[in-house]
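Hi X.,

You mentioned you wanted examples for the new student's onboarding notes, showing what a folding record looks like when two proteins sit in one file. Here is a clean example. The first protein comes first, with its sequence line followed by its structure tokens.
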Amino acid sequence: MSLEKEDLRTKHDPDIMNKLRDISAYYGMEITRQAAILFEKAVVGEWHIVNLGLERIKRNERMRDIVVGEGNDRDNLVKYPIQISDKEKA
């Protein structure tokens, strides 16, 4: 997944760099290779969280359209009342 032509230069806390050195020594890799692997894991993990959030927003928009009657079936506009429990009001 690494791109050989891409380059990303960053500055890190010395404590983080020490931890990265320990991790790379444990796995027997060069520090740059280990940093690339961990960077990719972090980006993919964060993208997963963002993607789930975007899917949740889209799902909520579809549900809102159904509830207020602006869904795909415009011939049968059925509006369902939104019920708020007493717990939510407090």
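Then the second protein repeats the pattern, sequence line and then tokens:
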Amino acid sequence: MFQRFTGAAKSGASAAVGGAGASTGGPFDAERAELQVRLAEQERRVERQRKEAAELAGKMAEMRLEQLERWGGEAGRLWRRIEEMRLTCDQAGRLQRESTEWRVRAESLQETLAKESQRWVGERVSLQFASQQLRLVVDQWLDRFQGAVEEISSIKLESEENRPARQD
């Protein structure tokens, strides 16, 4: 360590430090060569890794684009499916409204039918009563007519019996 500060050591140190490009045959030259070899290897390794990173980045970009294209296709299919479902829901809503309208109409018609049925039942009863009354009237007329016919027949018989026989 003391040699460093001595004059002899100074001249050797100045040659190594001052003449970095010059080959003095000292221990630093071998170290420097080894470091330069290592540095060159490291630079090649870094360059190779940069190329690999660039390739990987390109592959990743391609994969992302492919994934985006797949997702885009899926998104398109999903959008069409959503539109189909929206149309189906709209149609279902329309059918539900129509069925409600038909149900209300059917209930109204059932009420009208029940009222008409009651009216016709009443009419039928009324007609049955009128028919029975008519039968009674017709029976009375037939009885009277038969009585009149019998009376006329008996009068006719009496008159023929009481009439003198004609002589021609």
